[in-house]
Amino acid sequence: MTNPIIYPEPIEQAIASLENWLQSIGEQNILRHYSLSPRSLALLLLQKDPTIWQTLKQDDKQQQEVEVLLTVAENQLQYPVDLAIAESREKHARNLAGITIQTTQPAANSTQEILHRLSVNPITGFPILMVILYFGVYKFVGEFGAGELVDRIEGFFEGQINPIVNQIVAQILPWQPLQDLIGNDYGIITLGIRYATAIVLPVVATYFLMFSLLEDSGYLPRMSLMLDRLFKSIGLSGRAVIPMVLGLGCDTMATMVTRTLETKRERLIATFLLSLAVPCAAQWGVILGLLAQKPAALMVWGGLIVAIFLFVGYLSAKFFPGTSGAFYLEIPPLRLPKLGNILTKTWIRMKWYFWEILPLFIWASVLIWLGKLTGLFDLIIRGIEPFAVAIGMPPDTAPIFLYGFFRRDYGAAGLFDIQQQGGLTGNQLVVAAVVLTLFLPCIAQLQIMIKEQGLKTTAIMVAFIVPFAFLIGYCVNLFLNVLGVTL
Amino acid sequence: MNCHQCQKNCYSIKQKHSWWTRLTKKYRKEPLLAIDGNIALVGTPNVGKSVLFNRLTGNYVTVSNYPGTTVEVSRGIAKIKDYQIRVIDTPGMYSLVPISEEEQVSRDLLLEESLDMVIHVVDAKNLGRMLPLTFQLMEAGLTVILAINMIDEAEQLGLKVEPDALKIELGIPVVVMSAALNRGVRELKQTILQLLSFQPEPDSANVEMVR
User: Fold this and answer.
1) Domain B33-210 indexed as CATH 3.40.50.720
2) Which of A96, A104, A221 sits opposite B158 (nearest CB)?
3) Do B159 and A39 touch (CB under 8 A)?
4) Which of A10, A110, B2, B92 shows a CA-CA span of 20 to 30 A to A439?
């Protein structure tokens, strides 16, 4: 292949001598297993590429030789080599673009420009965000998904499916414990599948639909741009907005997307915040549905979680020294989303989410059944009860914290169940919602955290999160009681 | 993302479901695929690599309108005429020297995988900013096709790209396309086959330059 670029003379000399050197050492060359041309390897060495450099470090002699060649080139240039290389490339690219692109009269596209300005400017952008949150999140996901849809499907389950299942089970299975495995209070169908399809699925489906729409319109990067300053103050660049918003859908997915963040420190803070203070769609959707009738309670919960998010983010930014990466993000054009793409994407995500949780929910049912059979379940619940009582909850809510161990959304769904059966006071709902939101991430998220951050870091995070969640719950309860507030 | 990991191990998943598919009698054992070529889609974030991947392979990987949607490598098979070509979708990268972890993933792939070809997907609206990566890919000794994507949006902005001039200047094949509108995908497929020398080059004068 021909060389597309001729670099300034000192760099070309350095490339030539590096190429020669790479050839002369032949078999001893530890870089030879890379499938790149010698010229490319030479250029990467000149740009001090970390991976290549790391490989070179295995051999002191080779490293010293390269360093000598580098220093010679740098002295001749009197200019950082990597900058000179980048500059030559950019200059050549500009020239080429100049020759091969013609600008005809630009078509007027002013509505797009106006919309862009409006969404990026904080004065107009913040109200726009609020409107999107109100209609997209509160109205569509909260009231329609977690309210209307959940009520319908849940009602269908309770009214039609559960009684039939219980009846059939009672007739064909002679043994009470076996009946309980499939039906009754904690059965695979009557609890596990019901939670997954009736409570979690509608919430997740409506959220993914709304989120896909926002994604494809190009709004998210503009939101990041607007919120950049707020995020800077907690030690993250505006880039971190996207993983956080994605976390409101599924924290597992979002933890993976933290890879787009530049510095290790940013990734660590973002991962931590995701596991502590960013509830996933199934979880906040259910909580939204629960608290929707009590706006004051909803405000306390929302305000508290946001405050904790900002405060803990701020503290961890202080705690982990370093700088947040500079904010550069391609701002894609605003586009009219394609219906086909949105529906496909929502469908694929829903399917993935559902198959991910269904086995877990079924396992949870089986585990609870086993626990009940052996008495272990009651033992653990009796262990949790004092904590539940300490944060002002009735003792029979203890199981939902155990569910929370399995999955956040499972716990939230359990809370929903208790509320429907008889109820908790507004205060108790808020406290339980706060504790469950802060509580441990689900099993899938834990796995990804371990994969991305390592076992040790994850263990430290978990060791902080569990007591912290209960402590906050305790404080909220105390605070509400002392002030005599009833929500 | 989790939901798309199936591309990596679609065989094991097939086996997992085979009892069910066998029950429904839709299951037929496919002959082992003979791969005729290995190509990777690379480029800056948010230029439409994943849309192109979906177009070429018929698989689905998530596509969005913001940079960084793809953070892991996806693999799929494109059937072009009778040839089976493995296509690899990569996270976005700005240069061969990576800054973030997603770029590292793509770079490692270029370093370690034996590829027959890379398709550098660029945004027609920002061609000038994206060409430096083309140079680096060429310098690396890779066989490169430059796929100028989103040409429809560039045209809306009043930009006219001359692919032939660029082809002569760079000495590599250049295809102008809009993957989302399915424009230029056929030309790209033809170019792929030509470069893998499965098809005679129509203009033999170009062969020297291209190979």
Assistant:
1) no
2) A104
3) no
4) B2
Instruction: Name the one residue in this structure whose structure tokens are 């030509």.
Output: B194
**Quick one: pLDDT at residue B185?**
93
Please tell me whether residues A34 and A171 are part of one structural domain: no
For residue A101, the cross-strand partners are B161
B203 part of contact set with chain A, CB < 8 Å: no
The whole domain housing A37 covers: 9-100
* Shared domain check, A442 and A337: yes
Tokens at B70, concatenated? 């793809």
Pairwise CA distance, residues B20 & A181, whole Å: 25
Kindly state whether residues A69 and A186 are assigned to the same domain: no
User: In whole angstroms, what is the distance from residue A325 CA to residue A416 CA?
Assistant: 41
**φ, ψ for residue A263, nearest 5 deg:** -100, 155
Alpha carbons A217 and A211: distance in angstroms, whole number = 10
ipTM above threshold 0.90: no
| Chain A CB contacts of B176 below 8 Å | none
Burial of residue A253 (number of CB atoms within 10 Å: 0-12, 13-18, 19+): buried
Residues in chain A with pLDDT < 50?
1
Whether chain B has a CB inside 8 Å of the CB on A213: the answer is: no
Q: Does residue A267 share a domain with residue A233?
A: yes
Q: What is the CATH number of the domain that holds A62?
A: 1.10.287.1770
Spatial separation of the C-alpha atoms in residues B67 and A221, rounded to whole Å: 8
What digits encode the pLDDT tens for the residues A237-293? 777 887 888 888 778 878 887 877 777 888 888 899 999 989 887 788 888 878 877
Question: Do the Cβ atoms of A66 and A45 come closer than 8 Å?
Answer: yes
More confident residue, B146 or A315: B146
Q: Does the pLDDT of residue B206 top 70, yes or no? A: no
| pLDDT greater than 60 at residue B4 | no
